[in-house]
Structure formats: C-alpha cells, structure tokens
Design a protein that fits this description.
By secondary structure, the protein is α+β, with helices and mostly antiparallel strands. It has a single domain, classed as Alpha-Beta Plaits (2-Layer Sandwich). It comes from Rhodococcus antarcticus. Belongs to the UPF0045 family. InterPro entries: MTH1187/YkoF-like (IPR029756), Thiamine_BP (IPR002767), UPF0045_domain (IPR051614).
C-alpha cells in the first residue's frame, strides 16, 4: 500500500512556521526504512498496512509534541500483491507522456 499524508500542528511557532514540527514527522518516516518521498504538500510512504500505519501514528505523535491540536490528512492506495509502486506509478505516467 501507498499512503500519502500530511501532518501539521494546528498552532505555529512564534514566527508562523510549522516546519520544525513537520521535520520531526518526516524524520520518523525516513528512519523507518520504508520507501518514501516528501514534497511540499505530502509525504508518501509504501509498505504493508501495519508498518505504514505505525509510522504515520508515530509521525502524528511527534507533531503533537509541538501543539495540543494536530491536523492529519491521509490518502491510501491499497493494492495487495504490488510493491515498488511509489515510483512505478509515476514511471507509467511518464511513459504515456513520452508516447504522446
């Protein structure tokens, strides 16, 4: 499965930034050892249900340390039997673009 999620504290620091809290979440994802990518809006992670959801839960907990209220947006692509889809899905789209 691939999960794309965004986690952020509801309250920013005194400069209006949430980047330190988000970095704590991204650090947990990267240290998980699961395939992952981070963009300006979401972090995507690929693995089995339990391991992915454990990482998301720990990322939320890390952000929650910075704020009493936390926002989580999550989208999942659940496709049993498929791995390596974090990049393969994008590769297939790029192939179609090259052919057009």
């Amino acid at each position: 499965m691939i999960v794309a999620f965004s986690v952020s504290p509801a309250a920013s620091d005194d400069t209006g930034s949430v980047s330190a809290a988000v970095a704590a979440a991204v650090r947990i994802v990267r240290e998980s050892g699961l395939p992952n990518e981070t963009s300006s809006m979401f972090t995507s992670i690929e693995g089995e249900w339990d391991e992915v959801m454990d990482v998301v839960k720990r990322a939320v907990a890390a952000v929650s340390e910075a704020s009493p209220r936390t926002s989580l947006v999550l989208k999942a692509d659940i496709r049993p039997g498929f791995t390596g889809q974090l990049t393969a899905k994008v590769d297939r789209v790029e192939e179609h673009l090259r052919q057009a």
